[in-house]
Amino acid sequence: MLFAATLLCSAALAQDSIRFIATKKLFVLDTNNSSYIFGVNEHNQLQHVYWGEKLWRDADLAPIRSAPEWASFDGPATTTPGEYAGWGSNMYTEPCLKVTLQDGDRDLVLRYVSHEIHGDTLQVVTKDIQYDLFVNLYYRVYPAAGIIEKHAVIENKTPQTITVESAQSGVWYMPPGEGYRLTYLNGRWAGETQLVHEEVHPGEKVLESRRGATSHQTNPWFAIDTSADQQHGGVWFGALGWSGSWRFSVEQTPHQRVRLTGGYNTFDFAYPLQPGEQLATPPFYGGFTGGGFGEASRILHKFTREFILPGGLSAKPRPVLYNSWEATEFKVDEPGQRALAEKAAKIGVERFVMDDGWFGARNNDHAGLGDWFVNPKKFPNGLTPLIQYVNSLGMDFGIWVEPEMVNPDSDLYRKHPDWAMNFPGRPRTEARNQLVLNMARDDVKEYTFEWLDKLVSENNIAFLKWDMNRNFSEPGWTDAGPANEKKIWVKYVTNLYEIIDRLRSKHPKLEIESCSGGGGRVDLGIMKRVDEVWTSDNTEAYDRLRIQEGFSYAYPTQAMMAWVTDVPNFNGRTTPLEFRFLVAMMGSLGVGNNLNKWSSGDFELAAKMIAYYKSIRGTVQQGKLYRLFSPREGDLTANQYVSEDGKQSVLFALLRSQQYGHPAPTIRMRGLDERGVYRIKPLHASKLIEKLETASGSYLQNHGLNLRLTGDYDGTSILLERVE
User: Fold this and answer.
1) Taking every pair of C-alpha atoms in the chain, what is the biggest distance, in angstroms?
2) Which position among 30, 74, 355, 537 bears the catalytic label?
3) Which of 112, 280, 448, 624 has its C-alpha lying 20 to 30 A from 129's C-alpha?
4) 85 burial class (0-12, 13-18, 19+ CB within 10 angstroms)?
5) Which of 467, 523, 531, 714 is catalytic?
6) Is 467 in the active site?
7) Residues of the chain with pLDDT under 50
8) What pLDDT is attached to residue 16?
9) Are 137 and 281 in contact (CB under 8 A)?
């Protein structure tokens, strides 16, 4: 029971966050700002009732009845909003569960059996009307955070094999009606997390990854609204905690219901359960706010920092990082890395990361993956002298790894060709000259844990940049046997999670970044196990504005790595170093430039910007984000961050291009105390038109500030400190 254990043993929150109204057979799940209600109808089936603004009076709620049929074509199984419905009877909407029994029966009708409430956790047991197939539904309420978590555990207590063909974590219903709008994150490699708004139309829309990983192309987050903006309007939102193939089905039924079902991808999915076996679905998190997209993001950000990311709210802000890849690529050696470390330390870097090329016969991307021993020609004395030198400069040491991959030109592959995903006798498709190790195999899992544990145990390594530079192909698993081979889609990810969990348990100070050729594995499942994620391989500053904006709708700044790198980068565009720093400082700051090519002026500017960033990073990474101007809607991008205690706020304003001499728009702040007084500390005094040393929150939010931003790629930052 992969996910259930952590839910049931969690500390109880508010006593009344979950209650069962026995006289009406209703379950009421309350957060600080929302209610989620479902119940048991006259047919003993679970039926959704309500999700939205908080309802405070139980007397307003009535017992529920199933919906009537619509002629002979849509029976109650279709018209009734089932809370977790199996595919059976005459159901024609997306089911949460579809199975085939060994005797050929494919009909599944679930009925309520019992429930238990343990503090903030609800367990509801359902069962098929004939067979001993049980589905345990788990709900956890995070009252102060405004989030509800749900998932299911499917148990086979029959004497025969049951093959699960669709296992969803749950379904979210919008209030009855039309005119809904769906928002999601789309893209591709180097163009991740592009924000998409579109109307929900009759029929079904599918958002998914079939790639074995979360994917660059679509992210498992959603928001649904009718007419919301950044500050106003109802928004229903959610995210799936799974790092493998996933699927969202968004339906607008003919009966004016919008529903979103999510969980494991049904493509190529078959998970046989022997008698006594069970399958848990990933956690599905959802929330509602009446405060627009901005508040929806802030709710999810704080929830992720408190309950998902390692360390919770006590976690320290991310350190300023330097990565050696752009300076050396595969040509790493001890003298070269030492020289870069010296330069990085001078500008205030706190973590030095050596990238690819340090192991095996790794002189290019054609060989060496899988042979995780230190290259003796590049590091004749091992890694210890370099690490000690980096530590002596006041930085901790990190290193790049790609544990899930293997080059055919490697000792590992020559010894264990069967460890790579394959269908016997079929071609093995390479991408970036590498194949995917079958992490679903327990021998591969143990090998991977052992070499990672050895690497970290024998060296003072504080940080792993964990990469995954391709997706699945030929996902065969011959040793599992034909009936179980498709379990690879689930077992791969659960074994990956186990490796990371064991590694972190044994090395509690170790920190990890999830990287998959950029943002190919960003989700709440991997974030439970890593401290940060690599947002995109595209570090070009102007492109990053939209990538980072989309990311911010779903995930917190603390987890979003953002580097300053050399130009020209993607698109052949050249932007000023200061502009690049300002863009990256709206995330968790890293530097990836070739420092060997910097001028003295570059070093001076970098040291200044990093020192400024350190003074504000607690607010940027762990504060409340207000998106004031969007890069999708004009030349100005403006983001504001407010510390949790309200004592500090930081504004970033970046201008793409000025035209016709028009001034930049007035920027009106958000999230301040109208009666408070704030000291204004501009990064560039010349760019603040109003020569104010202090201003009230009322002035800053209603009159606003005017900035002197001109030309192309201009920008600045303003620090506000509350003084009274």
Assistant:
1) 80
2) 537
3) 280
4) buried
5) 467
6) yes
7) 1-15
8) 86
9) no
